[in-house]
């Protein structure tokens, strides 16, 4: 699997977590009235934790591979920068979702 394809999958996953966190923030009162929302929130939180852990490892590995290549591929550098920015948003969203989980 090419590095560019993995960057795309990571980008989709990071965007999903960020969008879920934003919609949770704005629709929080409505969402908790839904019977299964607590399970959805816990599932997305666990997904965000695993994504943060594996993305850190992958971004380090991918950045070393991308930067140390003799032939530079600009689309990979673009994906790398976008994924790094979204990674920090995902960390923030994960911390926010942690504060929203009810005991």
Topology:
Blueprint: H1 3-26, H2 28-31, H3 37-67, H4 74-100
Summarize the structure in short.
This protein has 103 residues and is mainly α. The chain is 83% helix and 0% strand. The model has no long low-confidence stretch (mean pLDDT 90).
Explained architecture:
The chain is mostly helical and 103 residues long. It has one domain. Helices cover 83% and strands 0% of the residues. It is built from four helices and no strands. Helix 1 runs antiparallel to helix 3 and helix 1 packs parallel to helix 4. The longest helix has 31 residues. It is elongated. The mean pLDDT is 90.
Strand count, sense and barrel status of the largest sheet are: none
The percent of residues in helical segments reads over 70%
Strand content: under 5%
Domain module count: 1
Number of strands: 0
What does the overall shape look like? elongated
Low-pLDDT residue intervals, each spanning 5 or more residues? none
């Amino acid at each position: 699997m090419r590095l560019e394809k993995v960057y795309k999958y990571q980008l989709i996953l990071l965007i999903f977590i960020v969008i879920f966190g934003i919609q949770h923030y704005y629709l929080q009162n409505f969402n908790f009235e839904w019977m299964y929302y607590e399970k959805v929130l816990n599932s997305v939180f666990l997904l965000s934790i695993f994504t943060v852990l594996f993305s850190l490892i992958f971004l380090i590995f991918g950045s070393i591979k991308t930067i140390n290549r003799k032939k530079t591929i600009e689309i990979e550098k673009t994906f790398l920068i976008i994924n790094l920015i979204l990674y920090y948003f995902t960390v923030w969203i994960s911390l926010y979702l942690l504060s929203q989980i009810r005991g």
